[in-house]
Design goal:
5-stranded mixed β-sheet, mainly beta
Amino acid sequence: MKQIFLPLVVSGIAWPCLAQTSTDSADLPERSKTLGVVTVNGGQPSSLPTQIPTTIEGITREEIETRINATDSEDALKYLPSLLVRKRYIGDYNHAILSTRASGTGNSARSAVYADGILLSNYLGNGIANGSNYAPRWGLVTPEEIERVDVMYGPFSAAYPGNSAGAVVDYVTRMPDKLEAHVATGYAHQSADVLGSNGHYRSWNTSASIGSRSGDWSYWINLSRSDSQGQPMTFPTVLQSAGVAGGAGTPVTGAIAGLNTTNQPWYILGAGTQYRTRQDHAKIKLAYDITPTLRASYTLGWWQNSARGSSETYLRGPDGQPVYSGNINIDGKTYKLADTAFGLSQDQQTHTMHGVSLKSHAQGEFDWELSASLYDYGKDQQRVPTVAQPAANLGGKGTLQDQDGTGWNTLAAKGTWRPQGMKGAHIVDFGLGRDSYRLNISKYNVLGDWQSGPANEQAVVSQVGGRAETRYAWAQDSWQLARDWKAVLGLRWEDWTASQGHTATASSQLSYAQRSESHFSPKAALAYQLARHTTLKASLGRAVRFPTVGELYGATSGGALSFINDPNLKPEKSWTGELTAEQDLGNGLLRATWFHERTRDALYSQLIAGTTISAVQNVDQVRTSGLELAYSAQSVWIRGLDLGGSLTWANSRITANAANPASVGKWQPRVPRWRATAWATYKPDERWAFTVAARYSGRRYSNLDNSDVHADTYMGASQYFSVDLRARYQIDKQLSAAFGIDNANNARYWNFHPYPQRSFSASLRWDL
């Protein structure tokens, strides 16, 4: 078997990657880099086009194991430039949204996450709204099965939808070419002290996997289970100004006086949404080489989640007993506590993912791929009581929110044409396809016990849903203009339809007319080899992000929060450009990127002042300009010392907004002016590896008008500086152990909810 070496881009650096010219070369898409354009080869299913015309960063399985205390798949992105995942606890299934250069953690629909070419981003909605969540489905990938992760910044490839305005994340998971097996177990512990709550929160996880290749067949099986306790996430409050002077109500003690995000005095009355989650994951991947250059693949992913949310009251009555509801009296003022002020919840979800592909990888004049995927909410239910504690702990009235039948499916055909006779001057990628989304959220009152009773389908609290479909075609040409010049030109056409939209409550029912729009999105990139080790690049791209079904139709009422939909929302349209200089340092790479984005009709969901109701709106225009510096190198100063880091400055402002003039000139929500990462790994020998890493984010705002001036409190978005530590020891050829501390400096910071405080973790792994 002949072997050749191709360069592999890892965190922007070209490294030798072993590629095999036998049929085994199909197992993993190799990446090579010429003139700043990354080339992808191989037969493994992937969302990436063969030519990637812009900044791409990545991390390998070995780097993750060495450097990162990874308990969830999104942890792989932890130290990549300009990225932040709003992960609040281990197993966070409903709020872990990805933030990018010019998009905050409320905009999940402005990034695209794939695993082996299967869409994990949830474009049924955007952010957290209407009692549901639209974070990427991170749980369908475990850290143990990751082979590598690549991130493309910006909407510069025609292969991706307008949701790629922020970034595209592509996970490639294991597909071995010989027998291998892995078993891992881990434990984490956090001692958190948040406002009036303190406690010890623990997490356990185990996983096992096996894979091999026999003749033309190869397979991979991965099983995992986690059991996690999270710190409190929400805190019931009342404004002090809402109290009525007098002696009515039960006198209580324990309320914590403070200031809310707009510096209004309030009382914090307790803590809620403390999750205990139990999650199971199973993944089966099969591949069959029909011919040496044609591979068929099938992936089945199964994820199950059981979560219980609890709450506690800080209030104590004259008899010392906890107080959960009714009229209370604090310092001579009376306040009304709703029965649901200190809520409970039970979540049960079973989701499945299917992916099939047929891909040629002859590397001749023409290659092609056919693929399809399905993501199905087989079961997705949330139960909450409508009676107060302590009675709610035993049963009573409540509601059941049911999303069964919700999901999405995709169908795509892609090709690569390498015209013969042009000596490689052109490589053309092209494709067409369809993405379809169906949302169905029904909330009913429950018959009998809220914890187990059936839904009373005659007592509808709310019922919303609809469909959206996008048909598209695209083409992209990588053109070698001259020896030192390369251009990538692309065009994407998208035809979007929203239909069957409906919203209903106990007192009203609305249906919405079908809508359709079509848009073209051009892309262009140019790379110039200025010197042997210096490359200059320029990229420009348009992205059209269509409103999601949830934003159009997902109105809800009742419960802790309500949401007002808008069926007439406009698509969000962005132009993004960047200029990059890359310097190959021999043992590493230094990159500087200037970026600019102008977005018209930006889509935002915001709380209406003084209420618990949020509404989605179009913001006329948002502009973001910034500079990103990234560095990564190996064996710096001394052998075995690897260093890396990034620094991002962004000026992101709302420049026009007729619906909210007070927001004009203010910062875009959740996008900080400064953010930075840094890490150092020292490997004194083949057994030991020690890593210290740090992350920083500057001040952020959550409100369009930046009225949330007090950030270090519940609902605030504060700055932070956090240090992580990790030590890994290779005990023998098969057994390894690791110990880590996340947030070792015990920083206390907020992104609406509190982030974890100092957390200890330990893991043991066996590899065959």
